[in-house]
Each structure stands twice: as C-alpha cells, then as structure tokens.
Write a structure and sequence with these properties.
Elements: H1 3-15, H2 24-28, H3 33-40, E1 72-80, E2 85-93, E3 105-109, H4 118-123, H5 125-134, E4 142-146, H6 163-187, E5 197-202, H7 204-213, E6 222-226, H8 235-238, H9 242-248, E7 251-257, H10 263-275, E8 281-285, H11 291-304
Helix pairs in contact: 1-3, 5-11
Length: 307
Amino acid sequence: MNLTTRRTLLAASAALALAPLAHAQERAADTTPDRARANFARPITLAADDVRLYPEPPAGYRDLGPQGLKGKLEGFEYDSAVTGARRKAQVYLPPGYSADKKYPVLYLLHGIGGNEHEWTSYVKAHAVLDNLMASGQAVPFITVLPNGRALPDDRVPQNPFTPEAVKGFENFEQDLLQHLIPAIQARYSTATGREQRAIAGLSMGGGQTFNFGLTHLDTFAWIGAFSAAPNTRPAEQLVPNPAATKAQLKLLYISCGNKDGLINFSQGVHRYLVQHQVPHLWNVDDHGHDGETWGSNLYRFAQLLFR
C-alpha cells in the first residue's frame, strides 16, 4: 500500500469517529476524504489522566542489525469454515525457537486498510519483537499476524468502509476462535492455557481486540488495544461484570495518540474501567493515528507479556 492510499484510509477512519457506533456501518459508505480531514482537525479534549506513561523507545528500536532477523518470519495457511476458503497469516517465531519448548502466543491484528502484512511492512513489528527477545527484554513468544478481514475474498477492497467489508472484521471473531487458534496450536509448539495467550491490535484491530479479548477472557488473559477504531463496542457491553473481568485479566493495555481523532473511543473504555476499578494501563503519547504510536506501544506491551 502506498503512502497516499494509507493516508486516505487513516483519514477515512477518523471520519467515522463522530458517527454514533450504532450507525458506523450505514454511514461508512458515505465517507469522503474532505469529511475525514475535517474530523481529523476537530478539537481533542484531554483529561488530566490522558498522559504518557512511557518515554519514546530508543533510537533504532524498529531496525534490524547487520545480522538481520534472529528469529523467523514465515507464511502460514489454514482452512476456515467461516469464509469457506483457505486463509493466510504470518507467524513470527522467536530466536532459538524449538519444538521441545511450549511458547505463549500473541495474536496481533491490523487496521481497516491492511492485511496480514501491515504490522511487518508498515510498523516493522517483527524487528521490534526480534530485538526485544534477542536482548532478553521480552520473554520468547510466538506472534501470529492474521488477515482480520474474514471474507471469501479477503483482499483490501477499494472502499473498505462498505457494510460488507466492515462485516468481515466482525466475522473474524469466530474465524479466530474456531479455526486460526486451533490451526496454530496444531502446527507450532504452543502453550494452550488462557494465561499463555494474548491479543492486541491497531485501529480496526484495536477495536477487534477490545471486542474479542474482553468478551473471551476464557481464551485471552493479556489484551492490548492501540488507537481503537469506531468498531469498539460500548464499554458496558465489553465489561458487564467488572469484578469478573478484574479477576481474569493479567494485563489490559490501552493506548492512543493525543493527536488522534479516534481517541474518544479509547478514552471511553478507560474512563469506564476507572469508574469500575478495573486495573489497566492507559498510555497517551504525542502521536497521531500512525506507525510511530503503534510501534512504540508494541515495544512497551511486548515487554510486559507473559511474566
């Protein structure tokens, strides 16, 4: 995806920020770049606790050294009854991966204009994780980068905001739970308990992370939502029983940039959690809806996982 296309998609994402959640799909097809730019320029209201928790990562944190990747990034395919098609993902294996050891797994979800390559091509997630694990700053874990658009034709469409295209991201809930996770467990040496499984994502994938992670705490104990999009369900639906959520979570990490027009969705979840005393981390950095915030928050999130 070229830079112009990516900026258009990100701008269109911001256009949805003012639309009521119940009408997000109906209004999506009417989104225009002009409306998107106007919404990006709207005032962002920050509260006293909408602040940065962590400094910027060190220089070069997303760059591979002269030795290149120390782990392994490979393609993966699996069959899905949800789409009726064979689907693709990428899998990152940590340095020293061995079938003699059981590894925890992170499922890392992309945005509305991306696919299974967005995290590696745009954010350089494989380099972030590789550097952390090789240096001992993160425990070794497998990362699965799927295509979160669960449709028979899951290519990035010309207009990703049509109701049908958006529906593909909802469909991915059952594709993930019923097909992808079992296929990964059959192929790789994975630990299979909920406390050994994490989910995280950016933008539309951040909304999926809230929607799938918080409502399936029997599957995921570690959750990271970065710059969550308007597909995020209302907080009272995500956490209807705060005491039960509090008891099951190992980590809930929420982040957004203070220049991001979508911040109100993450703010809403954060404030609900504060009101109901559900522990979580809330990191508001100085970025917009872009790879800098997603890379830096993956850098922090990965160091906290599975400890």
